[in-house]
Design a protein that fits this description.
By secondary structure, this protein is mainly alpha-helical. The chain has 18 helices and seven strands. The protein has two domains: 357 residues, no CATH class; 65 residues, no CATH class. It is globular.
């Protein structure tokens, strides 16, 4: 079996296993509090009640499905409408009507499959027969595949970005037509560039921008590769074919429900921005090292020609915009280890892959991501915060050495307790909520004390089984 066949076989097996889990087990998983729960409620409300209002019937429906009351539901304070992504909610609700509870997860799996095939096809010129192998590593060596089992619209946005990039950068440049030996030479004649790809690519990027305005920046590198049309080689016609469809999804959503995102209101604080940049890079939960380590191989590839050479810069600007616009929610709905808001940007970076990526590098990347991704490989439906027993010593030690994202409001699996405006937050799975208190499941744990105002003192009560020693940073005991 050659490299090409083996690469496609590996990718097909991984995608088939993911699709099987999506069809059989994902519907049994309870959505995480917050954004995931809100998306579940909105999709079911639209499919069954033909609206997106949060009423008692929605609570009863959730309780009947999972045995618990929905938590962290996000609604419009004025109309009671569930604040869920507009386009994804409609896709999921249609899938619920057609295929039942497994429908939305099958849609997610289909999106991943289409993105994988498009990415493999687009990178064949750069990576050759190993393109499917690298796509398997980029998808399953990151948290991208875990979104299939979650109510996260970023996976659909990720697929839209990858397919748009494949349409723009995956096609061969126009070739020279051979007139043949029996024809009179009248100069070289080039094949006309395919213009049909540009409206589709624009429509997909526009759909991505509906989720977050920063994703619209992905269109900029594509503009550098607009094909010349007409006798004078003007790119205006191709640009119009790209730009007009790009604006259509945004205009449609604005007309249907108003602006899909809040008005940009950047919050600039140098210290907060610096810490968030550190957390974005190497944070314990939302850091790129934890969730998207293969991007290092992409960034170290030789610069690609055309607009692709600007992809790292554009992605950096988009990530910076997310930090400024949402300094306390820059990772999106963080219901699992990873950074959902970065996932579509990661899809754009796939097209930085160059011929410098060799099979030995793929093996090294796979070994490097194993400590962080192994919990997901073994238990894909888990949130990734609790590693299997065999991996616990290694993964826990690695994560404890990474900074804890104190600026994020929500973190996966974190135990929290709020009293009179003071919040206690555990930094790992060794603490869990229990009857209005925090229970310790190990010999030691780290607890953060957070408050939006200065505190003269904080009193903490411990049970008789509490650890014998207490260390305090940023304060004193007394």
């Amino acid at each position: 079996m050659g490299l090409k066949s083996a690469s496609w076989l590996l990718l097909a097996l991984l995608l088939a296993a993911t699709t099987w889990l999506a069809a059989t087990a994902a519907r049994e998983r309870m959505p995480a509090p917050g954004g995931e729960t809100t998306n579940w409620l909105a999709a079911h409300s639209l499919a069954l009640d033909r609206d997106e209002l949060f009423v008692d019937a929605d609570t009863a429906r959730f309780r009947a499905a999972f045995g618990e009351t929905p938590r962290g539901v996000r609604t419009d304070p004025h109309g009671g409408r569930l604040e869920a992504p507009y386009l994804a909610t409609r896709v999921w609700s249609l899938a619920l009507v057609v295929a039942g509870e497994s429908g939305p997860f099958l849609v997610n799996a289909l999106a991943l499959v289409l993105a994988a095939v498009a990415g493999s096809w687009a990178l064949r010129a750069s990576l050759g027969a190993a393109a499917p192998l690298w796509i398997a590593l980029f998808f399953f060596g990151s948290v991208a595949f875990t979104s299939v089992f979650r109510w996260q619209s970023e996976l659909l946005v990720f697929a839209a970005v990858v397919i748009a990039g494949a349409l723009v950068w995956g096609r061969e440049p126009p070739a020279i037509l051979d007139r043949g030996a029996d024809q009179i030479y009248g100069g070289d004649v080039e094949k006309r560039p395919a213009l049909w790809v540009w409206p589709i690519a624009g429509l997909l990027v526009g759909a991505a921008a509906v989720r977050h305005p920063a994703y619209a920046l992905i269109a900029i590198p594509m503009l550098f590769d607009l094909p010349p049309t007409g006798k004078r080689g003007s790119r205006v016609w191709a640009g119009a074919l790209f730009a007009v469809p790009l604006l259509l999804p945004i205009g449609f959503v604005v007309a249907a429900q108003g602006a899909p995102w809040e008005a940009p209101a950047a919050f600039f604080h140098p210290a907060l921005l610096g810490w968030n940049a550190l957390y974005l890079a190497i944070g314990r939960h939302a850091g790129l090292v934890v969730g998207f380590l293969p991007l290092l191989a992409l960034l170290l590839s030789p610069l690609k020609p055309g607009g692709r050479r600007y992809l790292p810069l554009v992605v950096a600007v988009a990530a910076f915009a997310q930090l400024l616009m949402a300094p306390f929610d820059w990772a999106g709905d963080l219901s699992a280890v990873g950074n959902p808001w970065f996932l579509p940007l990661y899809g754009a970076l796939l097209f930085c892959a160059g011929s410098g990526l060799h099979l030995r590098a793929a093996l090294l990347v796979a070994l490097a991501v194993a400590p962080f991704l192994a919990p997901f490989w073994i238990a894909p439906l888990a949130d990734g915060t609790r590693a299997p027993a065999a991996l616990e010593p290694l993964t826990s030690r690695l994560r404890e050495r990474l900074p804890f994202e104190t600026s994020l409001r929500d973190l996966p699996g974190s135990a929290e307790l709020a009293r009179a405006g003071v919040r206690l937050r555990g930094t790992g799975p060794t603490l869990r909520p229990a009857g209005g208190r925090l229970a310790l499941d190990a010999s030691r744990a780290v607890v953060l004390v957070e408050s939006d105002r200065s505190l003269a003192s904080v009193r903490l009560d411990f049970s008789a089984n509490a650890p014998a020693a207490l260390a305090v940073e940023g304060g004193s005991t007394g």
